[in-house]
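tool=predict chain=A
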Amino acid sequence: MAEATFTFRVDEELKSAFSEIAKGQDRTAAQLLRVLMRDAVRRQQERHEYDAWFRSEVEQGLREADDPSVLRYSDEEVQSSWRQQRAELMARARVKKA
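tool=predict ok
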């Protein structure tokens, strides 16, 4: 992997403070800058991958919402089903206590 030099200006106070932080981590300022740069690139890649995944999920959801063959339940049906399941679980819990 080819290396390149990265040159930029920074005020002396910031440079000194950063160098002290690097020294506290047993690193040079250049080593710590490389770590920070790798982390920034990795975080950006992760955000990009998450965004692509999320968009794909939304698109799939929209396709399913428009698909007439997808089975749909009303809120009342779902609530009723959960009430029934909860009652059955509570009854089983009561039997185990006895």
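The helical segments are 12-24, 29-66, 75-97. The mean pLDDT is 94.
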